Amino acid sequence: MNGLNQEVYVTWLAQVLQLNLGESPFWANWGIPQYQTIMSQVFPTYYVMETQVRFQGLFASLQIVPVQGTVDPTYNVNVLTKAGATINLQVAT
């Protein structure tokens, strides 16, 4: 164990991307306005960028890219951990 919690941070990031804006009693300004996004069919680019800025210091590299052509807003998350591991996942909100 190297003392880095990179897997925990990736899980936390995925949960924040699935969190509805204002849903958390502790972090009311974290999350994505999912219902408005689904109704308008517009990706919440500002909120995703804000989430990426919040988490980018925890990793060597972090990239969150919207997947075009999906019904629900979906994102490809590419992470390079500080230990050098690459983690790629797809998160549907």
Give a verbal description of the structure.
By secondary structure, this protein is α+β, with helices and mostly antiparallel strands. It has one domain (6-92): Roll (Nuclear Transport Factor 2, Chain: A), CATH 3.10.450. It contains three helices and three strands; from the N terminus they run H-H-H-E-E-E. It has helices at 6-18, 34-40, 45-55, and strands at residues 61-66, 74-80, 86-92. The chain has a three-stranded antiparallel beta sheet, covered by helices on one side. The longest helix is centred in the N-terminal third of the chain and has 13 residues, at 6-18.
Task: Briefly characterize the structure.
The protein has helices at 6-18, 34-40, 45-55; strands spanning 61-66, 74-80, 86-92. With 93 residues, it is an alpha+beta fold. It has one domain (6-92): Roll (Nuclear Transport Factor 2, Chain: A).
Number of strands: 3
Written as H for each helix and E for each strand, in order along the chain, the element string is HHHEEE
Strands across the major sheet, in which order?
1-2-3
Based on CA inertia axes, which overall geometry fits?
Answer: globular
The CATH level-2 architecture is identified as Roll
Instruction: Specify Rg, calculated over alpha carbons.
Output: 13 Å
Uncertain segments are: none
SS element count, helices: 3
Cα-to-Cα separation, first versus last residue: 32 Å
Number of separate structural domains = 1
CATH T-level fold name: Nuclear Transport Factor 2, Chain: A
Give the CATH level 1 class: Alpha Beta
Average residue-wise pLDDT: 84
